[in-house]
Amino acid sequence: MRDPYSVLGVSKNASDDDIKKAFRKMAMKYHPDQNKDDPKAQARFAEANQAYEIIGDKAKRSQFDRGEIDAEGKQKFHAHGFDGFSGFRDAGGSRSGFGQQGGGAFDDILSDILGGFGGGRGAGARGPGADAAGGAGRQQRAAKTKGKNADLTASVTLEDLVRDGKAQVALPSGKTVSISIPAGTVEGEKIRLKGQGHPSATGGPTGDAMVEIRFKPHKLFEVKGSDLLLDLPIALYEAVLGSKVRTPTLTGAVNLTIPEGSSSGKIMRLKGKGLPTKSGGHGDLLVKLQIVLPPNPDGELSTLMKAWQEVTPYKARGPEFD
Known about the structure:
Blueprint: H1 4-8, H2 16-30, H3 39-55, H4 58-65, E1 88-89, E2 95-96, H5 105-114, E3 150-156, H6 158-163, E4 166-170, E5 176-180, E6 190-193, E7 209-215, E8 221-224, E9 227-235, H7 236-241, E10 243-247, E11 254-258, E12 267-270, E13 285-292, H8 299-311
Parallel strand pairs: 3-7, 9-13
Antiparallel strand pairs: 1-2, 4-5, 6-7, 8-9, 10-11, 12-13
């Protein structure tokens, strides 16, 4: 721990008010809620907390200036020996312990300074009291809190979901790792990567990475749960006469048999050609037929349709359209 005066940027003759102002300025600048992705700023905030605990408390500041405690508040040997774990005796014979915070003043100051960040005690703040294991003269250390979780997004193609279920994700550490996506994962679900989030400002465990899975838009397929929907353009004669049409899937093209007299909008099902399911199988590919007329006007087709209309008229719409 560096000299607390240097940490806060004040002289040894600074007033209590100047010390408080310096600490307030550093707390506002380096608070973890304002610097979630900057571990250096979080470390500076914790260091400022430690410094203010020493020179922001009149009793401990005097002890530090006399060389009785170090920059971390630990007792030091002095000319008259060492008085154990119960503190030092002053000239009047009374004991001065290290665990006292002056009625909770330190917490009150932090609450005032950091209230704008969501209230409560800031990360790295230390509370009053003594460590029972070390005796009443040893200052209680702050609890080592876990680092913040990192909210990340992994974009995955439909082909990758079917082929190997892998996705790439960039971690806060700067590393890029490959993660496995469980079968049956739907868009928006999150995968937890333990210990891959933001570091702790107080030396505690690293937070987790929460990776949200997003599907990259596909030029052909639309996702419907574990099923896929494909609009398949077909020629008028293919619909009327029937045909075999080459149809793409995520694992390669297949020949789909179009029945004679198929209408536009008819849905055909290719089983097992969809996305992986939680049960270990696959969804289906739903192929919706879309009849496409010739791109240019065709006189023969028009003549045929006029004759057909005269000889074999039929209703394409039900009574609900009347």
